[in-house]
Give the backbone structure.
Amino acid sequence: MPKKPSTSVSPAARLKARHRVIRDAQPEALRLRIHRALSWLARAERETTDHDARFIFLWIAFNAAYASEFGFEQREREQTRGFIARLLRLDGEHRLHAALFDQFTGPIRTLIDNKFVFEPFWRALREHDGSGAWEASFAKAKRLALDAAMANDTATLLSIVLDRLYVLRNQLIHGGATWGGTTNRAQLRDGTAILGTLVPLVIELMLAGTDDEDWGGVAFPVV
């Protein structure tokens, strides 16, 4: 007997329907952020077997949600941390906390234990630094993540996780990995799983926020 097609609504479709109801009353910058983020989330959902493509589309969706106008003196990671702080202020039900800490023994912990998404490891390799400094830094970062988990410190743990995902993003976007390769599958699967949970939740928190929440101007407005 043929299998019936799934009738479940995807996160992107559910959020898009919700956005359609309220978008006309939103500030233009916020409306544009959510519209763009949802378009990339929907594209990511179509990738069920290609983890490389799915991760890239999810990262673009996340980037569309948070990126704003900034000068050369402001690094992307600094901007991300400011975005996290705004999200946590909106997250009265602690949904980001639940998403992170429910998964800490799975993909998130595996990601934090993976030196291949730790930028100082690659820097030491490039600079032929045999001092072992990156290993000490790696151990310290893992302790910090564990302490954050024990203390229910959502901001710190989320910042560490996004730092790791940012390294993975760089590997893919800058051609530092082979499409469909075998050397980075573990971190790619974990990264995709984590972003697949975080991105819809981020968009949902933005939808639930008040219209006077200042998300800043978008970096590339429609002109």
Remarks:
- The mean pLDDT is 88.
- Residues 185-208 form the longest helix (24 residues).
- Residues 11-208 form one domain.
